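Good morning,

Attaching, inline, the backbone tokens for the sequence recovery test we're adding to the shared suite. The designed sequence is right after.
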């Protein structure tokens, strides 16, 4: 079973996060994930460094650990800007990026407050938000295609196309993940996780990343997989550290 760690970057200065990332690499975690938010408030932090800028810096600060965003909200960037940002991180890291994408929260969700603050429009319906996510996938396919249109000739091309994982909370989006991406992620305690993971099962036998996340705090380890999750083909656990962690304590979280 692959075990990853996720930091809430809003709680760290850059030197602290760099040291924590190196500690996670030394501890043997497979991938280090960070979140994508504009304001620290939604993650109970004082601020929130931008994710792709930070991933580029983490790529230079580390050498072997995978790097990922869980998840990039497709509603905060034009799909072309997202494609360029991800390709740049992929090239700096030498192919270590996993690109987590999400459809974005509803306008009434607490997570929408940061977008309301800057006047960013949010589609009212889930169907509209899912359609926007699929459009983003279309643009990534177009811009990263080996035989792409000449108009994209000088746009960044990733050295290796990043695996795309969808963070999902619904059956509808799970089906999109199984049909169009390389992986799915859902909270381990989601009341409908079994149905969601079943809906996300790809129709062919391609390699597929099936991950669940749970909170990972100092003094406790990740919840072991139960038979239900094992039967659903889960192959990766992601532990989210909500607050600050001394880099010297990072290794203990994976035990």
């Amino acid at each position: 079973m692959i075990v990853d760690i996720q930091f809430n970057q809003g709680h760290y200065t850059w030197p602290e996060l760099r040291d924590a990332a190196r500690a996670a690499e030394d501890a043997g975690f497979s991938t280090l994930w960070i979140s994508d938010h504009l304001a620290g408030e939604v993650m109970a932090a004082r601020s929130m460094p931008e994710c792709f800028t930070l991933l580029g810096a983490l790529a230079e600060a580390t050498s072997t650990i995978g790097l990922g965003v869980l998840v990039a909200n497709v509603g905060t960037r034009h799909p072309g800007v997202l494609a360029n940002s991800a390709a740049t991180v992929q090239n700096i890291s030498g192919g270590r990026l996993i690109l987590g994408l999400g459809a974005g929260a509803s306008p009434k969700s607490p997570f929408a407050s940061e977008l309301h603050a800057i006047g960013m429009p949010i589609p009212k319906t889930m169907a509209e938000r899912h359609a926007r996510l699929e459009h983003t996938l279309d643009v990534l396919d177009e811009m990263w295609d080996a035989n792409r249109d000449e108009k994209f000739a000088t746009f960044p091309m990733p050295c290796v196309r990043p695996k795309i994982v969808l963070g999902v909370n619904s059956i509808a989006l799970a089906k999109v993940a199984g049909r169009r991406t390389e992986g799915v992620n859902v909270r381990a305690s989601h009341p409908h996780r079994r149905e969601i993971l079943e809906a996300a099962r790809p129709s062919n036998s391609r390699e597929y990343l099936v991950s669940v996340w749970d909170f990972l705090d100092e003094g406790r380890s990740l919840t072991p997989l139960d038979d239900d999750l094992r039967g659903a083909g889960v192959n990766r656990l992601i532990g989210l550290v909500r607050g600050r962690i001394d880099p010297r304590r990072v290794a203990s979280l994976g035990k």
